[in-house]
Nif-specific regulatory protein
Amino acid sequence: MLDSISLREKPNSTSDADASACIVRSQEKSLSTIVEIAHTLTGLCRLEAKLASVIERLGSLVQMRRGIVCLFEHDGGPEIIVEDGRSEDRDARCRVRLPQGAIDQIVASGQPLIVENVALHSAFISSEVDMLNAGGHTRVAFIGVPIDVDGKVVGTLSIDRIADNGTRAQLEDDRRLLTMIASLLGQTTKLHCSFVRDRGRLMDEEFRLQKQLSELKPHGRDRKKVQVEGMIGDSPALRALLDKIEVISKSNSTVLLRGESGTGKELVAKAIHERSARAKRPFIKLNCAALTETVLESELFGHEKGAFTGAFNARKGRFEIADKGTLFLDEIGEISGSFQAKLLRVLQEQEFERVGGNQTIKVDVRVIAATNKNLEEAVARNEFRADLYYRISVVPLLLPPLRERRTDIPLLAARFLKNFNNENGRTLVFDSSAIEVLMNCGFPGNVRELENCVQRTATLARGSSIVRDDFACCHGQCLSALLWKCGPAEMARQPSPTISLPARLGMPPTQAVTPVQPVSSELTPLGPPGRPVVGAAKVTDRERVIAAMERSGWVQAKAARLLGLTPRQIGYALRRHGIEIKRF
């Protein structure tokens, strides 16, 4: 008898084991899907794309025929509706597809709604029943759960499916899963709303500062020029930059310095700090590209004793050292994606924890970031976080390359040569032919390359003055020339009007003067191709001025900018060549 009972029970035991294994596999699949959904919601794509991906993955989690995520505006109307991967904004067609009665009940009660047969439930009107194809012998079940943020319902997540032989217990299981997903959606919606508000506030602040910059106008001859230590020149591009520095330094807004390598981003950052109310506080600088992510985190946030191997003592980070002052983050476009999230929190909340510590430290730091990378393209390629971009680019400031301020080259070269003479006990000066070479060089490395060029040439110069033949480029030995001869922009080497410069910088201009042709970065050649750049005839000057005036619609100020001159100089050139101004 016992044997017969054992034989009868054995199949049942096998069946129970199979059922248990099936349940475990189902639970593992559900957990894996929820993890995928959570990973999707933390991505960098648009909110609508995230919601569409959630609906797509929801089909592998629960039995469903159609899924809908609906988020509401402040006035209660639908703002975003995502249905089976299709996303639309608020319009009449969206509202027709929604089971409005059921949605309203969920929002009003703040509780989930489970309907085993929509055709028999009072929340569904006849048109909604027809929309769900629930007529006749087809039983359609509906499950809807609220999406809430801080106790307020901001949307709903709902599905419908063919009821078949499903039990109430199965609907309850699916309701629990949908509630978990709705909780994740609520957190994502909260972060999205916070990001939108933050971005709007930063854009408003940027607009206000840009408007203030645009309203900054000269006040006649008595207007005092802004002077910044280390920034040499008097070109229009440099004067405009210095004026912007003067305005920006009066606020505490985050600044993003944009420009090519060697344009003096660190000098500008220091100038903003020294002219601000934080001038007596620390100015701390850090090159983000020179450190690995782990070292960078320790450098910026500091670490506690024993936080990692070699951390024998607690150490303050740069943010903590720069409290009440300014922190300059160079090459910020090179930091990793994971570290961008950590940096975002510090910039937004002005608080952080040291590595290995749990005590929150609050600071008051003005951040000035710099990069020569195209951050807009990096954001589009998901290499740079959009929220961090908006956080650091409150006041973007573009630094002009040296080719756009060529009239500053003689002044810069003279200062670099003076520094060289002081350090080496020499008395070198520039010959006019040497200035001609410098004025016609592309300098893709900008001011840094100009300084290196002057030091190299002065070191190898054999006489008491630097002449044309002393330059490596005149002998085909300048390797940096490859950077701009084959570069995409080719550094705009076209001729411009002549500018008279003294033969020897630092000596009276009454000595030999040679006309020198600077290079314009904005003009294509105004004279015939192949015409000499240096020492051109006066008729060529006249043709260039006329071409520039025609190109600018005979507006003297625009023509002056094209030729790299001041309006006063262009007026003098018109009178000297007897050019009659056309009136329109």
About this structure: The chain is about 45% helix and 15% strand. The CA atoms of residues 468 and 570 lie 30 Å apart. The first helix runs from residue 2 to 41. The two ends are 118 Å apart (CA to CA).
